[in-house]
């Protein structure tokens, strides 16, 4: 039996602190909530401002959109994760039935999966025998390798809802705040600027912790915010009351 390599503290430090794994789902939840909050609320604010509403109405529209959308986003994140959990349980039950009813076919699928990974001959058969010796391991392998599905708990769904909803609130307040302290004309420009900057920072951070060029990723998200601002402003202009009315 081969000896186990010694794991040093330096190895652990590198693995856990210097170059740790990132929670991909958590990062996507933050970006989903934050980006949606910034973009949608910015569009609403500029649309209402372009229509000629007074500052109090613009601020009310922005805050109403902030909290209504944040609650909605959190609910969508929660229910979608629960739907993922239902799909997983359904497919898992089906795999258990297949293992019981057509074991040779399921065994052949395991063999094909690992043959595609490069296993051959005696080593391949040993892997297949090891996996299929335990039904729970067998089904878990099929769920992960064949269906690309992972289990999701209610706790994870609640966590996703909290992250998405909280990120949406924070993102939404970024374009709202200038309207609380500045005149409408200045606030509109400042709101676009801070929203674009926030989106750029989020995009750049995403690229730094995953893959891609930070500048390019940041510009892509900032462009989304700018397009939203233009669209919202254009719609508001369509409803702008003529002078004197």
Find the structural class using helix and strand composition. Answer: mainly alpha
Q: Can you count the helices? A: 9
Question: What portion of the residues fall into strands of 2 or more residues?
Answer: under 5%
- Name the assembly state: single chain
Describe this structure in words.
The radius of gyration is 26 Å and the shape is elongated. It has one domain. The model has no long low-confidence stretch (mean pLDDT 81). α3 crosses α6 (135-146) and α4 (103-116) packs across α5 (121-132). With 245 residues, the protein is an all-alpha fold. It has helices at residues 9-18, 24-50, 55-101, 103-116, 121-132, 135-146, 154-181, 184-209, 214-238.
Question: What are the main properties of this structure?
Answer:
mainly alpha, about 0% strand
